């Protein structure tokens, strides 16, 4: 496991920090520490402009190969960028699904024509993407998708019908990648396709889902005979499952270190409040703060181990524990925040009576143990894929 950085890496760190210091000012200064969990609805237009500002500075897609608009940065440099980005309080990335999921998937599995068509917009920060995976009956059990796709010979297009749910930032996105069933007689992971679709077209309707925080960061997306160009299926019909699983490897990648720095920012705020209101003198609170600090360090060391040994380009089995660990840790941090705030946790600051950052965080993290695979599903994955234990018996009628 690599726990240190070279002199060249540290120079890169200084370059990142300086650029952020010089550019996260003026119209962008209001974006500091905004757009995180429970706050994704804030400043959407300004954060889109910030995405393009990053692109102009060469700070989008830094891990992509240079021929596709990236910098070809090493794993170490990607880690550094994500850490410094969060340390500077830079806003939540509206382009992260395109940069971190759609782009790497196209680079790995897409045709050259698809790469030329879609990657430049992602790298420029002008094309935003969302993910069409979960459905009302297929959340953590992704292989149960029922969205249908059939090829219309007369139109020369794929026709998509069905429903997706929990689609983050669908209302802000230009494109969506969709898992749909190309063989109506197939079941489970067989007979699936991976499609690239425009959001702004007849047959696609986005409906916001009001969350506990009062915001609508994610959505339902309905497809009613929506069209996808013949050339915009990645791979072949029936290969969708393998491509979808390849994409999930990218989801557990270097951005995890930036996520942890955001967690550190939240913990730092909690500690500052505890010092100011005297809760830091409470031995139980002190122990819980210490436990949160220790958990965050464990998270970092496991991530560094996970990223130090990627085998044949994929993450090793250690990566299976990451989602379960951070989701549970973050949920507990939200509860710690409310206990440190005390009675103030239940008081809204001032008109128009919006939630404070920590209040929004506390409410939002209730979902951390659900989205991206529930804690229960994560434990099954660890047991079956990581430890080789027998699969859970299926219940038949």
From TrEMBL:
Residues 238-386 form the Acyl-CoA dehydrogenase/oxidase C-terminal domain. GO terms for cellular component: plasma membrane. InterPro entries: Acyl-CoA_Oxase/DH_mid-dom, Acyl-CoA_Oxase/DH_mid-dom_sf, AcylCo_DH-like_C, AcylCo_DH/oxidase_C, AcylCoA_DH/ox_N, AcylCoA_DH/ox_N_sf, AcylCoA_DH/oxidase_NM_dom_sf, Mycobact_Acyl-CoA_DH. Its cofactor is FAD. Pfam families: Acyl-CoA_dh_1 (PF00441), Acyl-CoA_dh_M (PF02770), Acyl-CoA_dh_N (PF02771). Residues 7-125 form the Acyl-CoA dehydrogenase/oxidase N-terminal domain. GO terms for molecular function: flavin adenine dinucleotide binding; oxidoreductase activity, acting on the CH-CH group of donors. This is Acyl-CoA dehydrogenase. PANTHER family: ACYL-COA DEHYDROGENASE, ACYL-COA DEHYDROGENASE FADE29. The keyword RNA-binding does not apply. Belongs to the acyl-CoA dehydrogenase family. Residues 130-225 form the Acyl-CoA oxidase/dehydrogenase middle domain. It comes from Pseudoalteromonas nigrifaciens. Keywords: FAD, Flavoprotein, Oxidoreductase.
């Amino acid at each position: 496991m690599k726990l240190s950085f070279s002199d060249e890496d540290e120079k890169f760190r200084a370059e990142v920090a300086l650029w952020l210091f010089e550019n996260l000012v003026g119209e962008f200064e209001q974006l500091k520490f905004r757009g995180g969990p429970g706050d994704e609805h804030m400043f959407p237009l300004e954060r889109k402009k910030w995405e393009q500002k990053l692109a102009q500075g060469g700070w989008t897609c830094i891990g992509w190969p240079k021929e596709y608009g990236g910098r070809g940065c090493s794993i170490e440099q990607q880690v550094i960028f994500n850490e410094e980005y969060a340390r500077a309080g830079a806003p939540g990335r509206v382009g992260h699904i395109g940069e971190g999921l759609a782009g790497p998937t196209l680079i790995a599995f897409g045709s050259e024509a698809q790469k030329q068509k879609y990657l430049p917009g992602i790298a420029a920060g002008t094309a935003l993407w969302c993910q069409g995976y979960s459905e009302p009956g297929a959340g953590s059990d992704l292989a149960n998708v029922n969205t249908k796709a059939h090829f219309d010979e007369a139109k020369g297009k794929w026709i998509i019908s069905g429903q997706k749910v929990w689609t983050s930032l669908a209302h802000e996105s230009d494109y969506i990648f969709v898992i749909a069933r190309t063989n109506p007689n197939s079941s489970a992971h067989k007979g699936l396709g991976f499609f690239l679709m425009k959001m702004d077209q007849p047959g696609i309707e986005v409906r916001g889902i009001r969350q506990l925080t009062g915001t609508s960061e994610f959505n339902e997306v309905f497809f009613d005979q929506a069209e996808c160009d013949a050339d915009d299926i990645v791979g072949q019909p029936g290969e969708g499952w393998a491509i979808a699983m390849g994409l999930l490897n990218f989801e557990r990648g270097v951005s995890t270190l930036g996520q942890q720095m955001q967690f550190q920012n939240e913990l730092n705020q909690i500690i500052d409040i505890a010092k100011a209101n005297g809760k830091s003198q409470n031995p139980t609170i002190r122990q819980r703060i210490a436990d949160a600090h220790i958990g965050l360090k464990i998270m970092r060391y496991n991530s560094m181990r996970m990223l130090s040994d990627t085998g044949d380009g994929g993450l090793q089995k250690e990566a299976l524990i990451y989602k379960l660990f951070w989701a549970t840790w973050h949920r507990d941090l939200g509860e710690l925040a409310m206990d440190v705030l005390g009675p103030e946790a239940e008081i809204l600051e001032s008109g128009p009576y919006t939630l404070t950052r920590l209040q929004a965080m506390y409410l939002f993290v209730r979902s951390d143990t659900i989205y991206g695979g529930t804690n229960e599903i994560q434990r099954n994955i660890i047991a079956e894929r990581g430890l080789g234990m027998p699969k859970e018996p299926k219940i038949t009628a």
